[in-house]
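User: quick one - fold this with 2'-deoxycytidine-5'-monophosphate bound?
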Amino acid sequence: MSKKMIITIDGPAGAGKSTVSKALAKKIGYIYLDTGALYRALAYKALKSGIVLDDIYALDSLCSESRVVLKNVDGQMKVYVDGEDVGNKIRTEEIGLTASKISAFAVVRKSLLQLQRETGVNGGIVAEGRDMGSVVFPDADYKFYLNADIEERIKRRHNELLSKGETPDLRSIRKDMISRDKQDSEREVAPLKPTSCSIIIDSTKLSVREIVEKIIRQISEK
Ligand code: DC
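Assistant: Sure. Structure tokens for the protein plus 2'-deoxycytidine-5'-monophosphate:
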């Protein structure tokens, strides 16, 4: 792997994208770009400022007034909104759902496009999200689409919240996940779907290590 490639990993919530992308990037010495964090950062600001979430004019102003910045701190990408490190505050279910809601608006997507592309300008990047292969990096060297059965994704999210010391409710996780799947895949702008050249991986029965190995096998074949 001499060339610094762009590798994209798209897929629905709970499919294991973040863990896999992070592990893959670390293993091959690439930058890990978590684009969900950018939408979550804007969702955080939208909730904080109390705007009506489907008011396109309010969203437009919010996006043009907000400064979303990515900084590489000791090899780790951190997200700042107007100078505030929002890393720990954006990992809630409420912010995930809000990010899903506002990301359906073209004005929101457009405001984050350049930042995402700039991060990948020199290659050497594993970019994770919903539209990495379809919109942000259409010329990516490898496009992966990671999926898993909904029941498995619900179980993973439940375990993740338990490990954070929370007391998650399975029924509300199921409800939120179904609603996020629907919102992310049925929106008009940049809907979640594999591209015609995406390599689809079903992660339902695979461990993180197995998925990373599978990806590395694919990208070493060329
Ligand atoms: O990956 P995540 O769960 O952190 O993403 C939160 C939401 O952000 C997701 O439900 C939809 C939106 N998103 C998007 O529309 N496009 C991306 N590339 C990444 C995330």
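One thing worth noting: DSSP finds nine helices and eight strands in the chain.
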